[in-house]
Amino acid sequence: MKDFFEGIASLFEDVLFLPLDQLRELQDDSWWAANGLNFFFIFIVFVAFIYWMKQLKNFDENDQEDKSVKAHTFLGKDAELD
After folding, report:
1. How many angstroms separate the CA atoms of 66 and 59, rounded?
2. In the chain, domain spans
3. 3-class SS of residue 31
4. C-alpha distances in angstroms, 58 versus 34, 45, 48, 51, 79?
5. How far apart are CA 21 and CA 26, in angstroms?
6. CA distances to 1, 3, 6 from 11, in Å
7. 0.70 exceeded by pTM
8. Residue 33 has pLDDT above 70, yes or no
């Protein structure tokens, strides 16, 4: 059983973490290049946020959302049981 867990540790340390080790070494040469992956993820989140806001605006303009007081089930009959 010990060999199994040592094999998993070896897989992560020797294979799967190699790109992260290379980024750590790259940091000494160029901070911007080492953080390029972070900037890429920030860009993806920014694009997703803009898309989400655009969709919210479209639903608001089309009046597709039920904005009445009883629109949600938690505001209906169950809330009056208290």
Report:
1. 10
2. 1-34, 35-66
3. helix
4. 38, 20, 15, 11, 31
5. 9
6. 16, 12, 9
7. no
8. yes
